[in-house]
Amino acid sequence: MKLKAILLPIFISFILFLLPMNQSMAFPTFDEMSSQAQSWLDQGKSGNIVSEDKIADILLPIGQFLMGVAVVVLIVVTVILGIKYMTADPNTQAKLKQQMIGLVVSAAVIFGAVGIWRIVYSFMNSLV
To answer: Is position 90 within any domain?
Structure first.
């Protein structure tokens, strides 16, 4: 039974490998890729660019919603871990302390996300 479970996928893979490829899956030539890339660049230069304000108007509510969800989850997990810690024996308390370290790190990332983003944004702008 185990031999069938091992050999059947190998046999199917081998058969699929031997089947001829469809011609519609041919890769484009370098000239075709170059012309597509150039038309993409020309489209960007033509002025059809989305402004940063529009992007911020779209993404800001999403970010605020995700931040609110993260804070609620963080509070609930903190309460649950606190109750477990108060009612646990010493061995279980040691395991819970390790989980609380992860909780503190995740809280630092959640609340420091704006600062982290500003650092990354300013670094990326300095490269341009």
So the answer is: yes
Predicted TM-score (pTM) of the model is: 0.53
How confident is the model over 13-69, as pLDDT tens digits?
A: 777 777 665 555 567 788 989 999 998 888 877 776 777 778 878 888 888 888 889
DSSP secondary structure of 66-80? HHHHHHHHHHHHHHH
Q: What is the distance between the alpha carbons of residues 113 and 111, in angstroms, rounded to a whole number?
A: 6
Q: Is residue 115 domain-resident? A: yes
Q: Which residue, 104, 103, 82, 102, is CA-closest to 93?
A: 82
Domain for residue 7, yes or no?
no
| Residue 83 placed within a domain | yes
Which residues constitute the domain of residue 97?
69-128
| CA count, 13 A, side-chain hemisphere, 102 | 6
**Overall number of domains in the chain:** 1
Give me the amino acid identity at 73: V
| Cα-Cα end-to-end distance for the chain | 60
